[in-house]
Amino acid sequence: MTTDLTPFEAAVAEVLRSTEPGEVVTYGEVAAEAGYPGAHRAVGSFLKRHDGFPWWRVVNAAGRLAPAHEIDQARRLRAEGVEVRDGRVRLQA
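RE: above sequence
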């Protein structure tokens, strides 16, 4: 894991580290909780560049899994007890 993180990256990392097994959050929720509302795309970019974070717990606003990683993401989420159907999860309202 990289230790030279920007303030944005450090805040996102902290939010991601706080997710629990079986918890699913959106990119937008991570951004907002990190103090950067509207930075959902930057959260996705962060996850692409940094290993060691539970990326599989993060989905888009519609509950869709990460493109090109759906099979692995679905497998990991199911292992944590999350129901995945047709490439998406049902988000809590």
